[in-house]
Amino acid sequence: MKLIDWREIIAELELTAHYHNALVLPPVYGAYCGDMMSDVLARARRGSLWITIQRHRNVIAVASLVGLSAVVISGGRVPPPDTVALAEKEGVPLFSTPLDSFHAAGRLYYLLTRVGLINPTADGVAKPQNT
Amino acid sequence: MQLKFQVKGMDFSRAGQAATKIKKALQLAGMDPATIRKAIIIAYEAEMNIVIHAYHGTLTANITPHKVEIIAEDEGPGIPDIPLAMQEGYSTAPPHIREMGFGAGMGLPNIKKSADELDIQSEVNKGTKLWAAVFNN
Ligand SMILES: Nc1ncnc2c1ncn2[C@@H]1O[C@H](COP(=O)(O)OP(=O)(O)OP(=O)(O)O)[C@@H](O)[C@H]1O
Ligand SMILES: [Mg+2]
Prior knowledge:
The complex is a heterodimer of chains A (131) and B (137). Chain A is of the alpha/beta class and 131 residues long.
């Protein structure tokens, strides 16, 4: 299976990294947008990148519980130090972008479609995830 | 194996920690990923319901090779109408909690979908006890 190069994700989504220690960035197999914790916990898939406007510590707890690849805080919002510290501790890659959630997701959707990780005609119907 | 955690109402700084520790224990125990996902949804939602809606309580996980039990017990306002609280979208969370991304009214429905067995007992002005089991296939 082909994967997207993280350098391309960082450039296309205009990401700023919020981790200090060297981190091996996990592969991104998909993405989820959501600002309600219960929704993301139930429906996001493991290995997805999460785009959200939330920036408090619980975002990291949810990302780590689901096994998400990374968190992107959208709309020019910057995570506070306690969120950054928890992300570092849990090993969750944390980024922010000036783009709003729609534009960040749109650009990532294009990248994911290009490498065949999204099938535009079959995907997109949200359902509870089992793993 | 039993894991037991104290959970404090409105303590968002530690919220989610108990569920995170339970997840790590389930992974170490080599449980099936589907079992882990269901158990952590229950653990996290039950933990957050204590943080958001109750005064304080405990979250317990009993882990055996065939089954994970999650028990959340709290002292708090209790749930006056459990069938109503179980409805998707029903929430009494105040606006500042909703701004943080809680209060979608999805926690209890998600617990119900994830649990193979579920029992909720509640007494108004006293507290709530939630017991859930997930079988490991
Ligand atoms: N432990 C509890 N003590 C008192 N009331 C509770 C408790 N758990 C749930 N409730 C009541 O049941 C309602 C529905 O709970 P549920 O978990 O489904 O949604 P929520 O917590 O409001 O939002 P979400 O879980 O999506 O963040 C709550 O808004 C609250 O009124
Ligand atoms: Mg809840």
